[in-house]
Design brief:
Radius of gyration: 19 Å
Order of helices and strands: HHHEEHEHEEHHH
Shape: globular
Strand order of the largest sheet: 3-4-5
Number of strands: 5
Helix content: 40-55%
Length: 217
């Protein structure tokens, strides 16, 4: 993972990262950092903001972010190997064969239009997010876009897979589902409509504010 870590710690973390990359829906990084936590603290001194454990701080602040970066690059490369990929990001210099970097979307009017016009909107959640539904997922469905996301159990509390959105279990499953939904346009559009209608009916800011006010009362 890093040249200024002992060989044992580097090997341990490389193996831990490789194992976590294969698992969706459960993150075990924090609970398994014990054998190398002292090495991490010495190599990358971090100052806690509150009552966080050292394991939490390094798992969330460094390792899970590295895992996410590795995962996103790997998946984008494999997808771009078969299909055109349009990327919208503030990393303007990022490039990859068959990937078209459009830069950042600045306007609140433009952002929903980009989502709506995209055939498939891919959500690869930051690995440090262990629970809840990412805001980006609500933005995609709320804009009428087709959402293809990594698996997170919290989605199932509010949305029906294959009806409101689609999730993938691993890389091969992701590539199969991209192939499938690019061909089955009517099914893709129906899922996007269902997701939009469900967000509009129960998951707008008005709904959340009403719930907070009811809780306060």
């Amino acid at each position: 993972m890093a040249v200024n870590l002992p060989d044992y710690a580097n090997g341990y973390l490389d193996g831990l990262i490789a194992a976590q990359l294969k698992i969706q829906g459960y993150n075990f990084i924090e609970e398994l950092l014990g054998p190398v936590i002292n090495d991490l603290c010495e190599a990358f001194p971090l100052q806690p903001f509150g009552m966080e454990t050292r394991e939490f701080l390094y798992a969330q602040g460094i390792i899970n972010r590295r895992i996410t970066a590795i995962e996103r690059l790997d998946l984008l490369a494999d997808i771009a190997g078969k299909h055109r990929v349009d990327l919208f990001t503030h990393y303007k210099e990022f490039s990859m064969p068959n990937l078209y970097n459009h830069g950042e979307v600045y306007s609140y009017d433009e952002f929903p239009r980009v989502i709506k016009q995209s055939k498939i909107n891919l959500n690869i959640t930051l690995r440090s997010i262990h629970s809840g539904i990412p805001l980006r997922a609500f933005e995609i469905m709320g804009s009428g876009g087709f959402l293809l996301s990594n698996y997170q159990a919290d989605f199932l509390d509010f949305f029906v897979p294959g009806e409101d959105f689609v999730y993938y279990e691993d890389k091969s499953d992701l590539l199969r589902k991209i192939d499938y939904y690019l061909i089955h346009e009517d099914e893709r559009k129906e899922i996007a409509k269902n997701g939009h209608d469900k967000v509009a009916a129960a998951h707008t800011y008005r709904h959340r504010i009403r719930e907070m006010l009811d809780f306060i009362k």
